[in-house]
Amino acid sequence: MDIEKSFREKGVRLTHQRRVLIDTLRDAHRAMTAQELYREARMAWPHINFSTIYRNIETLKSVGLICEMTDGIGNTLFAYRDEEEHHHHLVCKGCGKTISFDSCPLIELKQVLDETGFMPTGHRFEVYGYCKECRKDRV
C-alpha cells in the first residue's frame, strides 16, 4: 500500500507521529488496544504521549490505513489495514484473542449484489465465539 499516496489523496499531512503509529501497527501483525499501541510506539519514539495516539487514530482511520474492531470482551482494537492482505477476524469472547482468516464471505453475496446493483466499497466481518483454549474452560 502506498501510504504517502493515501495521505495525499485525503489532503492530510503524514507526520512523524503518524508514521510511527502506522509502522508499529503494520509490524505487529496483530490488532492492538490504544494502550498497547502507545507502549509499542514509545519504543520507536519515546516522547510520544497518549493523547497523540488517540488524536492520530481517528486520522489514520479516516485515511483508511487502520481499522477498528472489538475483542469480544469490551476492548477496542486497532489494526493496520493492508488492501493487498484482505482478511477478516475470529474474536474470542473469553480471552480477547483475534484470529485472522483470508476467505471472504462477501463472495457468497455476489448474486445478491448482482441482483440489487449494489456496489460495496468496503466491509468488515468479525465472528465472535470462543477459541480452543477458552472452550475447554466452558465445558
Automatic annotation (TrEMBL):
SUPFAM superfamilies from the UniProt entry: Winged helix' DNA-binding domain (SSF46785)
Keywords: DNA-binding, Iron, Metal-binding, Repressor, Transcription, Transcription regulation, Zinc
Entry GO MF terms: DNA-binding transcription factor activity; transcription cis-regulatory region binding; zinc ion binding
Cofactor(s) the protein needs: Zn(2+); Mn(2+); Fe(2+)
InterPro entries linked: FUR, Fur_C, WH-like_DNA-bd_sf, WH_DNA-bd_sf
Residues bound to Fe cation: H86, H123
Entries under CDD domains matching the protein: Fur_like
Keyword Cell membrane: no
GO biological process: negative regulation of DNA-templated transcription; regulation of secondary metabolite biosynthetic process
Annotated positions binding Zn(2+): C92, C95, C131, C134
Cofactor binding mode and count: Binds 1 zinc ion per subunit. Binds 1 Mn(2+) or Fe(2+) ion per subunit.
Pfam families with a match to the protein in the record: FUR (PF01475)
Family in the record: Belongs to the Fur family.
Protein name: Transcriptional repressor
High-level lineage: Bacteria, Bacillati, Bacillota, Clostridia, Thermoanaerobacterales
